[in-house]
Design a protein that fits this description.
single chain; mainly alpha; Arc Repressor Mutant, subunit A; three-stranded antiparallel beta sheet; 4 helices; 3 strands; WH-like_DNA-bd_sf; WH_DNA-bd_sf; DUF7344 domain-containing protein; DUF7344
Length: 107
């Protein structure tokens, strides 16, 4: 993938708070082979769980999976680090490490 395409993909992935929550939750996993349960592990309690699950399953997770940032087991409702996660990891780490300087609702 060309640099411009990577940046466009990273920007699109980070353009929504729900996607940022998924990606940051993956960043924080102690073991790269661990997985998250969705929507439970990304729910911050600010949305109806049914609405969040619908948005995740029909919008956010397909987008992240297509970009290669996540592996998604639809049947098990589990998400793990995808093959292209290393492309976005430095940006996530930078944002996460400087979260005190970001708006309160960035995740």
């Amino acid at each position: 993938m060309q640099d411009a395409d990577i940046w466009q993909s990273v920007s699109k992935a980070l353009g929504d708070k729900t996607r940022r929550r998924v990606l940051v939750a993956l960043l924080e996993l102690p073991n790269p082979d661990d997985t998250l349960s969705v929507p439970e592990d990304v729910d911050a309690g600010d949305r109806d769980e049914t609405a969040l699950e619908t948005a995740l399953y029909h919008n956010h997770l397909p987008l992240l999976e297509q970009a290669g940032y996540i592996r998604w087991d639809r049947d098990a409702g589990r998400v793990g680090v995808g093959d292209a996660f290393e492309e976005i990891r430095p940006v996530l780490r930078l944002l996460h490490d400087n979260r005190a300087d970001l708006p309160d609702d960035w995740v």
